[in-house]
Amino acid sequence: MMKILLLEDDKILCASLKDFLELEGYRVDTAHRGPEVFDLTFNTKYDFYILDVNVPDVDGFDVLSSLKEAGDETPAIYITALTDINSIAKGFEIGAEDYLKKPFDPEELIVRIKSKYRQANTLICSHSIVYDPVNRIIKKSSKIISLGEVQLNLFHTLITQQNKVVDSYILMDFLEQQNANALRVNIAKLKRKLGIDIRNIRGQGYMIENV
């Protein structure tokens, strides 16, 4: 059962949304103030966050920002009456997956949750890296990391084969100069840029271990 944390200071709306979500089969915990989220997430791992922005003490933007800084990659949707482009941009910059303007149809919220949760479950997480293999987007601590084509191809091949040794000759196919030294140089650059360990299995190839 998917566990959802709902942050909403309007207690009537919060109760209504909780009832609706539970009828859809979700388990829902609620918070009315920003700091309550930190207490709940300390003891419970959630599958999804629904966050209002204008809530007491710590607003929804700062709540999600703090969670992301702590390495929490749980997908989140903002629900808010704010409509200015700066607020919307800030929400996405912090790391929200979606933005739903009040008032909204609860059915639309369900559709968005299912879509974003399904998308999040296709992501590959390793170390502090979150990788979207479909769109080939790399995030570290919620910030997008840009790589050149060669290193992105190397990373994609290694990360999608986590815990498996990828033959050096397969990796060399991505290089302009297809030799062991050029491969070592590119792997070293990749390790520095992403801050991850890529093991050299002597005489075989390279691998990323999921630790």
Give the DSSP E fraction (strand runs of 2 or more residues): 15-25%
CATH architecture classification of the largest domain: 3-Layer(aba) Sandwich
Number of separate strands: 12
Helix content: 40-55%
Topology order in helix (H) and strand (E) letters = EHEHEHEHEHEEEEHEHHEE
Biggest sheet descriptor: 5 strands, parallel
CATH homology superfamily name of the largest domain: Response regulator
Into how many domains do the coordinates divide? 2
The N- to C-terminal Cα distance equals 26 Å
CATH topology call of the largest domain: Rossmann fold
Structure in words:
It contains 8 helices and 12 strands. It has 211 residues and is α/β, with parallel strands linked by helices. The protein has 2 domains: 119 residues, Rossmann fold, CATH 3.40.50; 83 residues, Arc Repressor Mutant, subunit A (Orthogonal Bundle). The strands form 3 sheets. It has a 5-stranded parallel β-sheet, sandwiched between helices. It has a 4-stranded antiparallel β-sheet with strand order 6-7-8-9, with no helix packed on it. A 3-stranded antiparallel β-sheet has the order 10-12-11. The longest helix has 15 residues. It is elongated. The model has no long low-confidence stretch (mean pLDDT 88).
Fold topology:
Elements: E1 3-7, H1 11-23, E2 27-31, H2 34-43, E3 48-52, H3 60-69, E4 76-80, H4 85-94, E5 98-101, H5 106-120, E6 124-126, E7 129-132, E8 137-140, E9 143-145, H6 149-159, E10 166-167, H7 168-172, H8 180-194, E11 199-201, E12 205-207
Parallel strand pairs: 1-2, 1-3, 3-4, 4-5
Antiparallel strand pairs: 6-7, 7-8, 8-9, 10-12, 11-12
Helix pairs in contact: 2-3, 6-8
